[in-house]
From TrEMBL:
Coiled-coil residues: 38-97
GO molecular function: GTPase activator activity
One GO cellular component term: cleavage furrow
Protein name as catalogued: RGAP1 protein
Alphabetized UniProt keyword annotations: Coiled coil
Statement: the UniProt record of this protein carries the keyword Disulfide bond: no
Signal peptide feature range: none
Gene label: Racgap1_2
GO biological process: mitotic cytokinesis; mitotic spindle midzone assembly; Rho protein signal transduction
Keyword 4Fe-4S part of the UniProt annotation: no
């Protein structure tokens, strides 16, 4: 457009050609700058995509590790409940048997009575819960926020 406007203004042909050449040079320089900007943007995109891929791998490993740890925790809690039931049965057996009261000292009987009165599970609950992770807290690292959707792993 500028070239056409220059031609319409009149003047010498040589001056018009010089003005047109300057316009073409300015356009060429602008194209070169845009090409360099595009190259830098593509390089930055490649770096960011590589970083994203690395982070996705780390996320996948973290998800797998959380899943493994949760399975271990559930197995440990199931085992603990199983042992608590066994202990409760032994306690009930000791408290019911007449020979059990004779074989046990007075102090042992009072401890067993207090445990039986409070229910064994409630007596051991503070011990068990002090070592577990509080999952009710809403944080970025909360296991409840982690999605186990395997469809993203295929990407």
């Amino acid at each position: 457009e500028q070239g056409l406007q220059l031609l319409e203004l009149g003047g010498s042909v040589e001056e018009d050609y010089i003005r047109i050449a300057r316009c073409f040079e300015a356009t060429r320089q602008r194209c070169c700058r845009l090409e360099q900007d595009g190259r830098r943007a593509r390089e930055q995109l490649a770096r960011v995509e590589a970083e994203r891929a690395a982070l996705e791998v780390k996320l996948k490993h973290a998800r797998n590790q959380v899943e493994v740890e949760m399975k271990k925790r559930h197995r440990a809690e199931a085992e603990l409940e199983k042992q608590e039931r066994k202990l409760q049965l032994v306690l009930e057996l000791l408290m019911r048997e007449p020979w059990g009261n004779e074989a046990l000292s007075r102090e042992q009987c009072s401890v067993l009575s207090s445990l039986a009165g409070r229910h064994l599970g409630a007596a051991l609950a503070p011990i068990r819960r002090s070592s577990t992770v509080d999952e009710s807290c809403q944080s970025l690292l909360s296991p409840s926020d982690i999605s186990y959707d395997r469809t993203e792993d295929d990407v």
